[in-house]
Write a structure and sequence with these properties.
280 residues, mainly alpha, 3 domains, 0% strand
Length: 280
Amino acid sequence: MFLRQTSTFNWPTLATILLLTLTLGGCSLFQNANQESEQALYEQASRHLENRNYTLAIDTLEQLEDRFPFGRYAKQLQLDLMFARYMSNDHAQALLDADRFTRLNPDHPSVDYAWYLRGMSYYRLYEQNSGITGRGDLAQRSQAQGQSAFDALSRYTQRFPDSGYREDALDTMIILKDSLARHELIVADYYMRRDAWVAAAERAQVVRQHYPGVSAQADALVVLIESYNQLGLAQDREIALATLQRDHPGHATLAEGEYQSPFLQQDRWWLKILTLGWLS
């Protein structure tokens, strides 16, 4: 007797296949939705940056960073965040962002920008205390941040000689170098008005040796002339005077054709007679 072969249908197997299909399909759909959501958020942040609405840009970029910390825009949004914070005057946070990026991403194609923004953030923090008018003299401030800014920008220009931001960094370094030099002369003025001529001469020598090319060079020579005169160092005085006449013939102390000591003006003579670089 022949029995008809009948196949017994395996319902549990079918249910497993269906479940796997739905799961995989759901994961794919979820992944696609995630990608679309990530892209939409980044495009929204980009629009805010283009419109210079930095507050909204920061909020959107922070959302993007929280939701997709390892997404395809992870590195770029870090650069965008430091830029938006810098432009919204949150220079302290921009500095932290840039410092972290340079340490963690030394080989990133745009790491030069992070180095540049790091130095500029130092500069803006130095500049920030600008008084009521917003135009306070940098030379009047503590020089620690100014030196930090100069050092950071100097490191950037040395590491990335072909960077597109290098020219702006060099221009900022000139401003910083001039203010650091003038600060030395303000300290020298303090010593001179207290007859501390050796200390005053030392400050002037710092300007002469460490800040070549700045507008305060001429005033540093005047400090040396006056200091050497008071210390009885006639030969050193003549050398400083000859250098002033040769290199800075238009200085205020030479206006009459011969050197006129600004020390004759006892009432805040330094601010009234010496240029401190402001007339250059």
